[in-house]
Amino acid sequence: MDVLNPDEVFTAGDYLRLGRAALNEIADRGKLPIISGGTGFYLRALFEGLAEGPARDEDMRSRFAIREAKRPGSLHRLLKRFDPPTATRIHANDVPKVTRALEICLTSRKPATEVFAAGKQPLEGFRVLLLGLFPNRDDLYQRLEQRLEVMFNSGLVEETAAILAHGYPETAKPFESIGYKQALQILKGELNKTEALYYARRDTRNYAKRQMTWFRREKGIQFISAFGDDPATADSVEQRVRDFLATGTES
Q1: Which of 124, 200, 213, 243 is the most buried (most CB within 10 A)?
Q2: Per-position DSSP letters for 47-77, written without gaps between them
């Protein structure tokens, strides 16, 4: 938050570089770094490192975007031909990740799986305790829907209009995200507020489902079946952290 302008690209590699710098800066002050978030690929990059992949090819990406717009799902089907293991791991609707994987395959002339596996530099100097909140799904969906309603009622559409008024194009990356995407569609007259809220809620539920699927596959996570604002959950997490710091092992 507040480190880039809306039209600036920010990759998992950038997150790795800036995130590790922040971890070391916090540790140098004698404090305990705490990472909170739900973007699994970025967290994996931070902890495990990333292979040195080829640079972005904007011309290739433009061709991919045109192809996907004409035939939705075609990029994922193409990735299945070049790199089936990577295609299996990436959802067909996650066009940015599919695009990057295809870009790596075609630029490096080898499967992205091979590129990803080579030359990773894991995080050093830290022990990591992974805690994952997995509340009841129905309760989670209810909270997500309530949060979106609050966002729209608290000025999301107006905020989007203000960003555009500053001269940023509607093609800027943030406008692809859930909420901003629907707010932009309201401003363009493509959706009314009721429709925008419906699609934002639907997309958020699907995104949450993909997040949970991702983290269930990650190794070493201690799952907690509750929300973080539950006092009992907070007490349990604090004790786990204390035990981890005291013994060097998860309890």
Answers
A1: 200
A2: HH----PPPP-HHHHHHHHHHHHHSTTHHHH
